Amino acid sequence: MIRKLVSMSLVLPALLLAGCEVGTKVTDQVGYRGAGLNQIALKRTLPAADVIPEPLYELTPEMRQGPTAKQTYQNVQVLGDLSAEEFNYTMAAISGWVAPVEGENGGCNYCHNPENMASDEKYTKIVARKMLQMTRDINANWTPHFSLSQYAGKGAGVTCWTCHRGQPVPKYNWSAALPDPKGIVGNKHGQNAPAKSVAYASLPTDPFAALLQGKNIISVQATSAYPSQYVESIQKTEKTYGLMMHMSQGLGVNCTYCHNSQNFASWSLSRPQRVNAWYGIRMVRDINDNYITALGKVWPANRLGPAGDPKKVFCTTCHQGKNKPLGGANMLKDYPALKGTPHDMSAPPAPPMDALPAPVPVAAADTARPAA
Ligand code: HEC
Ligand code: HEC
Ligand code: HEC
Ligand code: HEC
Predict the structure, then answer these.
(1) Closest-lying ligand to the alpha carbon of 274?
(2) Cα–Cα separations (whole angstroms), residue 273 to 120, 155, 165, 221
(3) 66-78 tens-digit pLDDT
(4) How far apart are alpha carbons 365 and 34 in whole angstroms?
(5) Which of 72-86, 175-189, 250-264, 358-372 has the lowest mean pLDDT?
(6) How far is the CA of 145 from the centre of ligand 4 (A)?
(7) Dihedral-angle region of residue 26 (phi above 0 means left; psi in -120 to 50 means alpha; beta otherwise)
(8) Residues 6+ positions from 355 with CB-CB distance below 8 Å
(9) In whole angstroms, what is the distance from residue 322 CA to residue 47 CA?
(10) 96-117 pLDDT tens trace
């Protein structure tokens, strides 16, 4: 009996300890040793591998010769300079990415009246034309978002699949939240939902309407110890944090993937990925303002959110829990038609590196830090 008790007293704690170990952890050191810039994740919660569709057939150099789409068809406004063959190749790919729906309104018919391919009678075709312009603009003019960091740089870019993944409306989107009911009952003051949009934190559930469209300033940190000129409201600060929670969740990373927690505002202490993210925020605003919202009344009522605005893009739309969408796969290389020509119209602005406060004095041991 006693021997049994003794052996149980040995086994039980071991069992309890085993209960705490809920899964294998994976760690990734992303900064200087000792700086705590580590990414720790539970293996079982890592997002599943992505589906990456292969081209239906190979686009050969010969297929890119010959009469252009503009010469061949009647109403081609964006892709007119492609050869008719490359045009058809691109149409076939788009159908599979956006509208692989069954039935007589699926495939080509999702956007076309099969009796008259040149007609713009279906709103989906008008939207698709705008989306073609948008995708070409993203790939031509927002390259700093894709290629700045030392780890990226392969120029992955985006296709319709990056957002759509075989669905007419991308799975991850946002639209403005309805205003809270008046009075105390049911009024959560836009927070404490808790909402998935801000990783279940007690933060405003919709930081996007304020920060992922338009031009509002995101930085909130004062530049001196007792600021008198530069004071931000708590509500605005919370929106900035809400956006940061979304960005971390959307990319499947921690704050230290971009920031050095010694000083969140300092650019010189941040990782290069924070610059990618800075361009990412501006790119998302460009997408939302100049393409999706700009379509205005083209969107039918069943495509609008509860407050009457269309469904828009945030980091998760493309990233879906990964620091690189689709695990870094470069689908764009097979679809040259989706890369436009760079133009000055929306040349991305430069991050405000110099306008920001100088980094706080660093400890002596830290001064050997190589330039980032
Ligand atoms: C997601 C929407 C969408 C789908 C699906 C789609 N198309 Fe298109 N199609 C467009 C748009 C947008 C244009 C106009 C492009 C432009 O203005 O540069 C177009 C134009 C065309 C034209 C030129 C017609 C003319 O005379 O002006 C042809 C031909 C065509 N598509 C064929 C196809 C075929 C074949 C399929 C199925 C394999 C298909 N499309 C699927 C959106 C779509
Ligand atoms: C950056 C993300 C993104 C990319 C890239 C993108 N789209 Fe979209 N697209 C959206 C969002 C978000 C909506 C939904 C808007 C809504 O429903 O209010 C949408 C809606 C559409 C619709 C309307 C579908 C419907 O049933 O109402 C079509 C058609 C479409 N996109 C075609 C395309 C094509 C073609 C491409 C590639 C040339 C493309 N999209 C690339 C984000 C994207
Ligand atoms: C993917 C990169 C990335 C991640 C992850 C990230 N941030 Fe940020 N953060 C940025 C960028 C970029 C800015 C500057 C935004 C701007 O001004 O447009 C910023 C700004 C901030 C600011 C404002 C600094 C100032 O100038 O006032 C704070 C505070 C902040 N982040 C906190 C956090 C916290 C807390 C987390 C984790 C929950 C986090 N961030 C996660 C990229 C990131
Ligand atoms: C239209 C799709 C799209 C949207 C929207 C988008 N990204 Fe990206 N992002 C990409 C692609 C593609 C890459 C490059 C991946 C590669 O190099 O393989 C990238 C790369 C990055 C990187 C560099 C990752 C690394 O590990 O080097 C960061 C950081 C980043 N994005 C942050 C953001 C943030 C923050 C947002 C939202 C404000 C955002 N992105 C929105 C498509 C997108």
Answers:
(1) 3
(2) 41, 15, 25, 20
(3) 999 999 999 999 9
(4) 11
(5) 358-372
(6) 6
(7) beta
(8) none
(9) 7
(10) 999 998 888 999 999 999 999 9
Are 37 and 31 contacting, i.e. CB atoms less than 8 angstroms apart? yes
Q: Mean pLDDT, to the nearest integer, of 50-78?
A: 95
What is the rounded distance in angstroms from the CA atom of residue 243 to the CA atom of residue 248? 9
Residue 229 confidence (pLDDT):
67
Q: Whose CA is nearest to atom 41 of ligand 3?
A: 255
How crowded is the C-beta side of 121, counted as CA atoms within 13 Å?
9
Encoded tokens for 124: 């989906």
Integer Cα distance of 205 and 193 in angstroms:
7
Neighbours of 342 (CB within 10 A): 13
User: Which tokens is 252 given?
Assistant: 């499947």
Which residue matches tokens 């729906």? 101
Residue 340 buriedness (CB in 10 A; 0-12 / 13-18 / 19+): middle
Instruction: Give me the pLDDT at residue 113, please.
Output: 96
Cα 345 from Cα 67, distance rounded (Å): 30
- Mutational test site, ligand 1, from 108, 120, 121, 295, max ligand atoms within 8 Å of CB: 108
Contact 258, 273 (CB under 8 A): yes
| Assigned token pair, 237 | 């600060």
Could you check whether the bond before residue 370 is cis, i.e. omega within 30 degrees of 0?
no
Structure tokens at 367: 């001064």
Vertex 198: Cα angle to 170 and 224 (nearest 5): 130
Pair 221, 352: CB distance under 8 Å:
no
Ligand 3 atom at minimum distance from 237 CA: 29
Mutation test residue for ligand 2: of 78, 167, 169, the one with most atoms within 8 Å of CB:
169
The structure tokens listed for 235 are 């509500």
**CA-nearest residue, atom 39 of ligand 1:** 108
